[in-house]
Automatic annotation (TrEMBL):
Xref: Gene3D superfamilies: 2.40.128.200
Species this protein is from: marine sediment metagenome
Keywords (A to Z) from UniProt: Lipoprotein, Membrane, Palmitate, Signal
InterPro entries according to UniProt: MliC, MliC_sf
Protein's recorded name: C-type lysozyme inhibitor domain-containing protein
Domain C-type lysozyme inhibitor intervals: 34-105
Length: 118
């Protein structure tokens, strides 16, 4: 991914996150790029507003995905904001894992397990 696309991703995700309300608009996103197995790069923008849920916006599999922070025993866990199937992004320190949660089968499939910030 080129630097121009990463900058555009950060600016776009900041605008998308800022459109939700004044408290969210005041939150400054933190952007990181994770290098995963098979040479895959996953840029992520994290936003923690004064009010409301913290979010992670990922650009993965050619689409932008917004996940909402949920409870985690360790690290930070971000999930699709529903009770159904969806992506889960779990990070701790400079490591992260991308998972697909299948609500019908009640199981998880790891998509990328070896993601690290550069």
């Amino acid at each position: 991914m080129t630097l121009r696309r990463v900058i555009a991703f950060g600016a776009t995700s900041a605008m998308c996150l800022g459109a939700g309300g004044s408290a969210l608009a005041q939150a400054m996103p933190v952007t990181a790029t994770y290098s995963c197995e098979r040479g895959v790069e996953v840029p992520v923008s994290y936003t923690t507003p004064e009010q409301g849920d913290a979010t992670a916006v990922l650009y993965v599999e050619n689409r932008m995905i917004t996940l909402v922070q949920s409870r985690a025993a360790s690290g930070a866990r971000y999930e699709w904001p529903s009770d159904g199937s969806g992506y889960v992004w779990w990070n701790k320190g400079n490591a992260a894992t991308l998972i697909w949660h299948d609500a019908v089968a009640d199981n998880d499939t790891t998509i990328y397990a070896e993601c690290r910030t550069r």
